[in-house]
Amino acid sequence: MNSYLHKIIKRVCLSIHPFLLFTFLSFQSSASFYYTPALEKAYKDILELKIEPAKQLISIEQIKDPSNGIAVYLQSLAETSELFLSEDIPKYQIAKSSEAAYLKAIGNNDQKTSPYYKFCMAEIKLQWAFAKMKFGDEVGAVLECKQSLSLLNENLQRYPTFVPTKKSLGLLNIVLGSIPSSYSWLASTLGFSGNVDTGMNMLEEVAGSKTIFYQEALMMKILAEQYILNKDEKMIGIKQLHDQHPSNLLYTYLYAAILSKHSQSETALLIIRHVPSGEDYLKFPFIDYLHGDLLLQNGNYVASRIYFNKFLLNFKGKNLLKDTYYKLFLSYWLNNEDAAAMTYWRLIPTLGQTVYESDKYANKIALSNELPDKKLAMIRLFTDGGLYTKALAILNETNISDFYLKKDKIEYYYRAARLYHKSGRIHEGIEYYKKVISVSNGTNYYFAPNSALQLGYIYQQLANKELAVYYFNMAISYKNHEYENSIEQKAKAGLNQLK
Q: Is the pLDDT score of 182 beyond 70?
């Protein structure tokens, strides 16, 4: 389950964690579960990735009242957020024993009939489930998730109007409701089940409430729409959150990332150049990674290296290393600095790990010893960045007869399909997606699976349910490619919307 959960969170990604887990009390209920103005400020600081200031506030409040379960919950939240985002392995090895202490502190609380009791227990377990998953403890992560889900269901049954429970269950319903078939046996064995529509309804209820939870639920809803349901192309929700909270580092990062997802790299660059900064904020190397990616898409190859190297210097984890070295390779390869490019190319298989799909892709292409065609790579980057005129100019200079490798011939059709689709030339996009599928027999590249997925989206938008279902099922049928989990998960979500 590690690969799937990594994909859901990273898409993402990795920066979603605080919003997945932030749950706070909107009113004081008892002496043992309440928040003070200082704890409310700590919650806001964690939300903005000001982790150290939050820890200091929480420590002071714990001295004042060691029995306050909210302080314990927030302390765990701050610690797991930092671990999840930093991917610092030595720090995790030291900190992982803290979970038992947090759970014991909640367990000793004298307000066991409060809805906050099981809620806090469940949230702490969920926090550490994500931390364990991030650091490779799959068994521990799955067990923690199962226990958290059980506690939340019990809490919902006993306190059906308790808003925080619905928020957390909403998240889990969406994740479990779109789980790929390769993990469905595990979910069934452990008693996991979920429904995307139920989850979205729960999040919408919380997001529309007047409680302090609304931002967190809204963020979950936005991320589900963007990365699972393929909705909200106008990005209204995330833009509003960013504009209303300019000091929030995480909102700024996510807004830029979602702009990039929608091929608006030039706007994303404007946003990311003005990220909030200062000593109070958690070091967040993914800002540099995204900055480098956006510059690469815009053809600023030399400048992109600055930010990719900053990411490598400051990041302590094992994910995205292969992908970053592949992009550094491209920054030299597409700038006709072939000798330097090959230095990075040869290092790709030796670094990091293949949990994230982008790392799987980089590793696969490096091991194949099939160097990427420069024109196809440039078409891809310009298309991803929304520079359609530049991409089209290169496409118009090429022809299928220019390519000798079968992979390059398939990719030529695929790059044309993506460019036509993204630039609004839908009928040409359909034609080329179908060409990709027709010439891909006997291969395990991701081009045909994603072509089927995109055709499903197109026919869904055209209200042709029969063809949409056909192509979503086709996307699911492709196996053993590097983007299998995410494509299948999105196709399943598409099918759920058509029911």
A: no
- Cα separations (Å) of 297 from 193, 301, 382? 39, 9, 5
Q: Alpha-carbon distance 46 to 79, whole Å? A: 10
Half-sphere exposure (CA, 13 Å, Cβ side) for 313?
8
Question: Residue 205's pLDDT is what?
Answer: 94
Which among 457, 493, 466, 497 is positioned nearest to 180, based on CA atoms?
493
Give the single-character DSSP code of 283. Answer: P
Q: Are 162 and 118 in contact (CB under 8 A)?
A: no
Question: What DSSP character marks residue 229?
Answer: I
> For residues 59 and 118, is the Cβ–Cβ distance under 8 A?
no
Predicted TM-score of the model (pTM): 0.90
Assigned token pair, 193: 């089940």
1 has a pLDDT exceeding 50 = no
Token couple for 208 = 């529309």
pLDDT of residue 210: 81
Per-residue confidence (pLDDT) for residue 13, from 0 to 100: 39
Instruction: Tell me the residue type at 252.
Output: T
pLDDT at 29 over 90: no
With residues binned 3-state (H G I as helix, E B as strand, rest as coil), the percentages for the chain, rounded to 5, are 75, 0, 25
CA-based radius of gyration for the chain: 23
Structural domains of the chain in order of their starting residue, each with its CATH number: 2-229 (1.25.40), 286-368 (1.25.40)
Per-residue confidence band for 175, with pLDDT thresholds at 50, 70 and 90: confident
Q: Find tokens 């008693």 and name the residue.
A: 191
Torsion of CA 164, 168, 174, 179, to 10 degrees: -170
Count how many Cα atoms sit within 13 Å of the Cα of residue 120 in the half-sphere of its side chain: 30
Mean pLDDT, residues 12-39 taken together: 55
Q: Quote the tokens at residue 490.
A: 């999105």
pLDDT value at 26 more than 70: no
